[in-house]
Amino acid sequence: MFMLFQLSACCLLFLMGFSEAVISCLNEDGQPVDWFIMYKLPIYKMEVKGSGVDYMYLDPSIMDFQISKYTVNSSTGALGRTLTQLYSGYTSNSSVYMLYNDAPPELKYPSKYGHTKGVLMFDQDQGFWLTHSVPHFPPFPERNYSYPLTGKYYGQTLLCITFNYTQFPHISWQLAYLNPRVYNCSVPVAFRPDIGEMAQICDGKTPAIKNRRSLQKLQSVQGQTFFSFAKSQNYVDDIYTGWVAQALGTDLLVESWLHQAHQLPSNCSLPWHVMNINAVCLPGPQMFRSYEDHSKWCVSYTFKDQWTCLGDLNRDGGQAGRGGGLTCCQNSVIYKAFRKAMASYKHC
């Protein structure tokens, strides 16, 4: 009888541990991963029409971008699996979540907010921060996962990083500078002392900030160092030229949406230069022009520096006066994947 009780108790503990999965970025197989990057391909690649929902995928277990067997509008890929944690658990009081997008789904998007897009979900153990470039995404939690039809046309990038809980107070501080257009959120009482800025933003208030910009060092759950650059609307400058290139001490090749008439030209006026990428070529080969690509990323010009940044802002004069940011790291796998993707650029 005692042995039977012990066996039942062990089985119960096993089942409890199995059912209480940690909140994390999830890979293509649904397993926790330190980080992943998705590069959604545009519908037109040099006049050749594609599906608009295919994407390249990269995580720490892969040495280069590879075409996914899933599509971005499916809940079975890394993005859908990761966000399903939100759609299945958003009613819980044991976790925080926040969805923000300057072009939110179903709502108008006034330009007073930062040009920034992302999703956070975490509990008092860990969680994920997903930053991306896709307007009208993701849907409200009550709607379940889907990908917008408007998101098919251009290329898009998405970066998901898994963090321990100790990092989210620093991320909360960065959000105050980004001034995000939050369209759905929940910050239970137990979390509010640690993430006061997120709580204020969720309540529709504007947190006070001390400076025009903020740089925070973050560490993923597996120890990868990331640097979060967040500028407020009061820092009126091109984030790539005026800040990031100078702070990192490296010339940058920048891919951003060079579609509008008021795009900024390549700039070599400061000690560290910034040059616009004109065309992208991913494995396959998948080649497309910059104006077919709504993603925002940059890499060091020289291979020795190995900086890669993904983020929110275009090199656009109109966005110099809006909040936004970049997340940067020195990771050789990420750098080589993006550096090889640079097909051509415009020197100063």
TrEMBL record:
CDD domains, sorted: PLDc_DNaseII_beta_2 (cd09192)
Organism: Danio rerio
Native organism taxonomy: Eukaryota, Metazoa, Chordata, Craniata, Vertebrata
Domain of life: Eukaryota
Signal peptide: none
One of the GO BP terms on file: apoptotic DNA fragmentation
Protein's UniProt name: Deoxyribonuclease-2-beta isoform X1
Transmembrane segments: none
Molecular functions per Gene Ontology: deoxyribonuclease II activity
Database matches in Pfam families: DNase_II
